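Write out the bound-state structure for fe (ii) ion.
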Amino acid sequence: MNRILLSAATCAAALLSTGAMAAPPEPKPLSAQTRANLEAAMHGEAYANLKYLRYADQAEAAGKPELARLFRESANIEANEHFDREAQALQLGGANSANLEDAMAGEHYENVTMYIDFARQAEADGDTKVAAMFRQIAVDEGMHYEAYKAALAKLSPR
Ligand SMILES: [Fe+2]
Ligand SMILES: [Fe+2]
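---
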């Protein structure tokens, strides 16, 4: 082997060993705890968003437009900055079929388990109006589940 060929081979080997010719490394996957914390934070941000919008309406109704604006501005940050950044960090969502399956799982749980349990507990405590509301909402969640299921069937008939 002549000297030029040998030095080219040495150079290629050196590049490979430093990773210079390899694809960029995959980012380290998030820990289970970080993922759980992101989920918890997103629940808080989403709740704060809707709560502050409600507070803003109440401030508006009470003749306090400045306060209403403060609540709306905060609500906007909670949703469109904090939730959004956390959702990106979590890589929330993806293919339509996976998104529909995830949505169906949530709606189904609310439809057949969560709201039914909440209604039973409210009934046991004598909170009959809230119990009735939980049962009505459970029905809505069942309709959401069915609508998503139909959308999934249209997306990928099986
Ligand atoms: Fe926030
Ligand atoms: Fe729903």
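---
The chain has two domains: 30-92, 94-158.
The first helix runs from residue 3 to 18.
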